[in-house]
Sequence to fold (233 residues):
Amino acid sequence: MHISSAIFDCSAPNLDACPDESLPEFAFIGRSNVGKSSLLNLLAGQAGLARVSPTPGFTKLINFFTINHRWRLVDLPGYGFAEGAKKDSARFNQAVARYLQQRPNLCLVFTLLDSGLAPQEMDLAFVEWLARNAVPFVLVFTKTDKETPAAVQANIAAFTAAIAGWFQQPPAVFTCSAAKNEGRQELLGVIAEAISAIQAEEESGAEPSGNVPAPSRHAKPANKKRPDLQRPW
Ligand SMILES: Nc1nc2c(ncn2[C@@H]2O[C@H](COP(=O)(O)OP(=O)(O)OP(=O)(O)O)[C@@H](O)[C@H]2O)c(=O)[nH]1
Ligand SMILES: [Mg+2]
Fold:
């Protein structure tokens, strides 16, 4: 897919402040410092679009970027950042949870995991929460340039084994390195496929198949409130 324009839209502190629901959205989530903003920039092809920082907890608002005037990338605040005002951190987490549970035009979530780490409790708990809340997502293992391929594969295998029992159909798995410009085409391909599926759906007027990562939530009415299951983060 060719990216012809990438424009910062707005930053929202909560769901009510998010922009209109007219465009399909692809959101990045994961622990603080895992590389969400860096991956967003890699996909957009614009190094300084989303702010990147070595300081964990840097992205504090829900940031929207419109791509090709047709769809959006959404940079979410990371979870697992303990410092700072507890109250603020809880508020942001609640905003992220509401965005993930209720945003009707959220098409797909890229859940980022550090490829250099064995499965982390918080990531496992977060993926379980996504599964329980029927949020469509894929896994993206980041920073592969920092590890040997064997170590990356071992960490991926351990994580996918740990979550296997929660899914009839396990989530798709990708790897990336923003530092080495790797993974861009594969992930843009996922987005292109999802957008094509939305177009096909709209043209046929048919109900979506509902298989993850099909864009099953696009263009549905905003009545999606599911039971407020306990958030692990
Ligand atoms: N070696 C390497 N470093 C990376 C990569 N991606 C990101 N980083 C570094 O990791 C740090 C965090 O990157 P960000 O993109 O800001 O991470 P984030 O997940 O958006 O962080 P928060 O907004 O704080 O939650 C920065 O110092 C980046 O330069 C990568 O692929 N390889
Ligand atoms: Mg960030």
